[in-house]
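Re: that chain you flagged

S.,

Sorry for the slow reply, it's been a week of failed gels. I finally had a moment to sit down with the sequence you sent. For the record, here it is as I used it:
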Amino acid sequence: MNLAENEINELNIIRDASRNTLLSSTKDDPEEAVLYTLAKEGPLTLAKLTETIGNYGDWEANHNTVKRRLDSDKSQINLIDSEFVIEREPEKRKPGKYGKIYCLTTKGFLASLATNLSIERTDLFKKYIQFLDKRLDTKIKHIGEDAGFDSTLNPNTKNQLLDIFTNYIKYQMIVFLIWNQAYETSIRKIRKFNWHIEDFCNLHNEFIYQEFPVALDKKEEERYRQILRKYFHYSKCIHSLMQLEGNDSKTKKIRYNLGMNDVFVYKWYLYFDQLQMQNPIGAEYNTLKIKSQVISRPEYGIDIEYEGTFGNKKVIQPDIKNETKNKIEQILKKKTSINHVWNKVLDRKMINNEFLH
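Prediction finished late last night. Pasting the structure tokens below so you have them in one place:
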């Protein structure tokens, strides 16, 4: 299977999983038009949103139709009630103008993927990755005994870390959608949606190797496994880099940069839409007003090749272990072992999460 076919398969998987878990069973063109446009363009006023929908030509939606779908139609749950969209006041309101700006939430972002829009083409995702890119360019000024240590990464290493971060977040999103689809879980009406993702991210490694593949449509199983392989690979890359030993300059730089940014990678869903709401529209994200959260570490010991019933011994395929090892060696430019990371299983006592206590 070539690269183009892989991309098409991924897009189809994402679209179907998003539609089955987040959209209404009855096709709603105005809703999809709003989700698609806000996902592709970013925050917009009502007037600009309506105008932009009209420019696409795929949907017909006038001002009143869009307004009703956002927050006025009492005959059905609208996009704000569904927590797909949130309002923010304009920074400068023009007299006599309806100035509220509409933004997608994380839930709305995932729902927008049902419109055949790839994750990489969405404004929220691009802005968040740009934010992580900028974070990796930030010099760490004070680190305990190493106060004054130059933590700046060379461009190649920085880009390699950013690629791992980007794909880790992307494939966690896809696995989240697939898992809910496999269990026929409608998450359209779920409130406090980020809590639902938080719960999933802290518990799903057990679900995947004990139950998840059993619930899959057998015709789709191999395609889904490819997604899980990629997700597992990037998860283990981060885990391996976190556990680096040594005091050489490059190792320390990588370790410190991971320590500074891990919360924004592992808990992306806490910041994904909040950065958008708390920073000026069109400006680069910063975190001056955002309080960092206590993080949960990435998944350990996910068995992506599990087949059978509960209790079977987990088997992790060597080819994926080798892929991960090769990636780490490519970054470090030296031979290394990841055995101590690969076989480590998640210790729930280490997770600071109310759902587990």
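What I noticed first: The two ends are 44 Å apart (CA to CA).

Talk soon,
D.
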